[in-house]
Design brief:
Length: 537
């Protein structure tokens, strides 16, 4: 059975209306342009990974300060409001941020600059309109709507303030998407990974320094987001002018590809449904069947668990535009090379984090947040398994969307969303936050398995035979270290040493296919790096 069902043709394209495709001719021979695109994507994504790493450190520091400063009730209410804001952001974007990174590069490859610019205009206008409408509704009907959904008055008041973040972050997604399309990782680095976390940390320092309350924190987050987006709009305009997308003649040739965009984005909204269900339903159900303290106990470890997505999310920004251009050219060989080169880099770079957040989950949690959150260490271990599995097998979901496998994507999205809600309803009333962790992890594993099976319809291999040994080690080493930790309970330093040794083994196994000397020739001059990574065989 093929993942896309009976609608798939031999070359992975579709002749049915259930999928959205651009007509292409198949080319299974990877050429130099594809190799260059893969190398540039890995190099630029590594810069974004370093920026993301910096951001995570700052965000974790901010969260530790917030958790230790606020009471459990205040932090739980703040975490609840922030979770609902994530839901609002997805409503405001309406999935259109994905249209930018898919359609703009495809239209540029086809020489249709009017439709490329029209895509940006249509997406921006729609997102701003939806965001403004959602903000007005939340403010005008807070008592009738929010009061009926939430028992905590503090959570309601914080949500009314922070809901303004939803349209702001939606606009930021479009901004970052255009930087990715134009191949400008430096602009993404500064905007998303330097300014935004620095602004939020400044708000937290002012919160503690001036002895303010949680509402000050909520207002500060909104102001920081607005300032960051506004400051970078002129940068985007200059970039578009240099690329030739904006000129006097371009505005007269604008074509709004509304039908093509909506035919792609509306069904893909079900992808947002899955992640919104996992990110918001657990908090909502924990607050309903338990308390805001339960929400805090679960949400407090999610940033640490999501460190397993650090490299994954960093590489995703540049992956979609490059994959879209290869798709438009019909370069299936180049697509396979791009996919598995990216996946292996993600798996290897994330491996140390995976071992630490699973084997040392409880010690890390107690060290960061105090003994009162010690039980949350179990949640960290469970969620880390799910997040790493989702990251280590690469961008299967994004690849399906680039290929327009809409029908299959919608089907598995609905299955995953329903399964997550069902699991949470069964587990949370009985097990509380532990039930939420089990339900989320099970959903992540099952959903990723379904997405990966769908690659059979794209021409991308499910797992190249030459990588079997590397992925076997990636799966086996953490399990061995975890068993050792459970059996002997050694000091944390022993766990750190085992993590380092295991990571070196994985790098040595993967180095023939990482081809690090192509992406980072100057870095390979360092003796230690060259000894560990080596040259491609």
């Amino acid at each position: 059975m093929t993942a896309a069902g009976p609608d798939a043709t031999d070359d992975g394209s579709s002749d049915r209306s259930g999928d959205v495709e651009f007509p292409i001719e198949r080319d299974d021979t990877p050429g130099a342009p594809a190799a260059d695109a893969t190398t540039d994507q890995i190099r630029g994504s590594t810069l974004l990974f370093l920026g993301k790493l910096l951001t995570i450190v700052i965000h974790l520091g901010s969260q530790v300060l917030i958790v230790r400063y606020l009471t459990e009730t205040q932090y739980g209410a703040f975490a609840y409001a922030l979770s609902v804001v994530t839901l609002g952001q997805s409503i405001a974007t309406f999935g259109l941020d994905r249209a930018v990174t898919r359609f703009v590069p495809i239209f540029e490859e086809r020489g249709e600059r009017g439709k490329a610019l029209g895509t940006l205009v249509f997406v921006s206008a729609t997102v701003l309109s939806l965001g403004a409408a959602m903000l007005l509704i939340a403010i005008g009907f807070q008592d009738a709507v929010l009061g009926a959904m939430v028992d905590s008055g503090l959570a309601v008041s914080l949500l009314v303030i922070m809901i303004a973040l939803a349209p702001i972050q939606a606009a930021d997604s479009i901004l970052i998407g255009m930087f990715a399309v134009s191949g400008n990782p430096k602009a993404i680095f500064v905007r998303r990974y330097l300014l935004e976390p620095t602004f939020r940390l400044t708000v937290v320092v002012m919160l503690i320094g001036f002895g303010q309350g949680v509402r000050f924190l909520a207002v500060g987050y909104v102001v920081a987001g607005a300032v960051g987006v506004t400051a970078y709009i002129p940068v985007l305009v200059r970039l578009l002018r240099r690329s030739g997308l904006i000129s006097r003649a371009s505005f007269s040739s604008i074509r709004l590809p509304i039908r093509e965009i909506l035919a792609f984005t509306i069904p893909i909204l079900t992808s947002d449904l899955v992640y919104l269900t996992m990110n918001a339903s657990d908090a909502i159900l924990l607050e309903r069947f338990g308390s805001v303290q339960d929400v805090g106990a679960f949400k407090v470890i999610q940033p640490a668990a999501r460190l397993n997505q650090l490299v994954f999310t960093s590489f995703s920004l540049l992956f979609t535009p490059v994959a879209a251009r290869l798709f438009a050219r019909g370069d299936r060989g180049g697509m396979d090379r791009l996919y598995w080169s990216t996946a292996l880099w993600i798996a290897v770079l994330t491996f140390p984090v995976f071992v630490l957040t699973t084997s040392l989950g409880r010690p890390i949690t107690e060290l960061a947040y105090g003994e009162r959150y010690g039980a949350s260490g179990t949640f960290l271990t469970l969620l880390s398994f799910g997040y790493y599995a989702n990251a280590s097998l690469g961008f299967n979901g994004l690849t399906l969307k680039v290929f327009g496998r809409i029908r299959y994507v919608v089907g598995i999205n609905l299955v995953a969303a329903i399964a997550n809600v069902a699991l949470n309803l069964m587990l949370i009333p009985r097990f509380g936050a532990l039930g939420a962790a089990i339900g989320t992890t099970a959903t992540l594993l099952g959903f990723n398995g379904l997405k990966h099976a769908g690659l059979r319809a794209t021409g991308v291999r499910l797992l190249p035979a030459e990588l079997w040994g590397t992925y076997a080690a990636i799966a086996g080493i953490p399990l061995a270290i975890l068993a050792f930790q459970i059996a002997f309970e050694p000091p944390v330093l022993v766990g750190l040493a085992l993590t380092g040794l295991g990571s070196i083994v994985v790098v040595r196994l993967a180095r023939p296919w990482l081809r690090a000397h192509e992406a980072f020739p100057r870095l390979m001059r360092a003796g230690v790096i060259r000894l560990i990574v080596g040259r491609d065989r």
